[in-house]
Amino acid sequence: MRTSPPFRADHVGSLLRPPALLRARETLTGDALREAEDEAVREVVRRQEEVGLQSATDGEFRRASWHMDFIYRLGGIGQATDEHITVRFHNEQGDIEFTPAALRVHERIRLNEPIFADDFTFLRDTVTRRNSGVVPKLTIPSPSMVHYRGGPAAIDPAVYPDVEEFWRDLSAAYAEQVRRIGALGCTYLQFDDTSLAYLNDPAQRAELSSRGDDAEHMHLRYIKQINAALAAKPAGMTITTHMCRGNFRSSWAASGGYDFVAEALFGELKVDGFFLEFDDERSGGFEPLRFVPPGKMVVLGLVTTKRGELESKDTLKRRIDEAAKFVDLDQICLSPQCGFSSTVEGNQLTADEQFAKLRLIVETAQEVWG
Fold first, then answer.
1. Minimal CB count within 10 Å: which of 33, 105, 181, 349?
2. Is the torsion defined by CA of 349, 354, 57, 220 positive or negative?
3. Tell me: the pLDDT tens digits for 348-363?
4. Cα angle, residue 13 at apex, residues 8 and 15 outer, rounded to 5°
5. SS3 of 249, please?
């Protein structure tokens, strides 16, 4: 088993909010809500350790969504009061919509203070007090998500008449976030990025083209800006990225394998590991993994978070063997394909089913890698 992240058995980050916390979010504010969140985080850290995971997150329990809570706290970015973003998700029963407030870049982008600093230090101290050897992991949206969610129309041309200045400021703000969160003791940071997976879907690329973006080359821009954000990452910090095709109330937004972005993504993105979605036919095959260079880790998201039915160990092992035809087995880890609760609503399964899936991942990894 690996002693540094990503681990043979790992997970993406978000976990189902317990009912008591959901009630607290509806009725409490300020210190009272913070205390309820603290108690829920302590318990979910314990549950992650109990199933045998080597990393622990706070389940993203203090957020309403995996990305917008972070993005709105970047200096220079605000919510549009009269406009919403509409993201259409699909499931077997039909379509549903996620409609967060639209974002506006109304001033030069900057980092006013390290985002989620208090959240991370609480997680860090909770893990440390338990003396379990578990590594605390922080998840944040990648810089790509600021642009992908808003596009050119979200950027005030009076603030950024030259779009290159927007990109420089955005990456600089992220670089400062990485530096300052590292100074707090974070050694495992994950950039969550649906955009690099969405761009494999021709329908998504058509949407970007219609709003004025160069959709055929957008992934190259995103890779460049993420690399700029990571150029001065602290020594000893592992940074991974998670790339799925949408996850909202057990529904998805995009389809297609990683083929369109694979060569540039795996060959050029300067992260230590890739969390990839491979839980169904919509995710494509393992062939793009042939572009993963030696030394980079691939975390196969073979266990779905979209339903409670437990996968078969034999099936998981067969799929790991299939992936190992394209990338060395020693570079492979196992995880769910996404979080269990990318937004506060969560996916359609129970907490017991969630932890059964995490335990299955741990047990399967132990049998495959020892």
1. 33
2. negative
3. 999 999 999 999 999 9
4. 115
5. coil
